[in-house]
Design brief:
- This is DUF218 domain-containing protein.
- With 185 residues, this protein is an alpha/beta fold.
- The protein has 7 helices and 5 strands; from the N terminus they run H-E-H-E-H-E-H-H-E-H-E-H.
- The protein has a single domain, classed as Rossmann fold (3-Layer(aba) Sandwich), CATH 3.40.50.
- It has a 5-stranded parallel β-sheet, sandwiched between helices.
- It is elongated, with a radius of gyration of 18 Å.
Amino acid sequence: MKLFYRFLTKYWRLFIITLILTLILIIPIKIKIASHQAPQPQAFFVLGGEPKREEVTAEIARWFPNLDVWLSSVPNVVETKKIFKTAGINSTRLRIDQRAVDTVTNFTTLVNDFQKSKIQHLYLITNDYHMPRAKAIGTLVLGSRGIVFTPVSVPSNQPQESNFRIIRDMLRSVLWIFTAQTLGK
């Protein structure tokens, strides 16, 4: 044990960098395995924020009656249920979770639930301007747990989010992988 502590104090930076790189490089392998085991999406995952995302999901979900719809932090639960009811989607298919406070926590609060439900492949639904950041976070958070996603972009008139926001949230996602903490926005 003493030898390990001596090694750690002398080479701690190299050790930490190697550990991080090893774990990050495992993600693509886990994604490839999940893609092979579940080539088709098994559920919908909608990032809350805009009712248009829910409307588009409700329309698509009509074509996939066996897939549950997971919604993370929707703006108005009553309106969300109404949108799906109007589209003919049974409320038993809806899994509404209000724990998330931002895009990173949209993923981190539900990834364990996806695993418990044995979901390995999701349709990821969000707006087109938000999709690059959602894909970056999803690749890290979901990928670290062996879950792959198929992105479905909802059209909008907004400009794409900044690279700063994408990189910031990627770093928060890596932090979550190692510590289970996301350090709010």
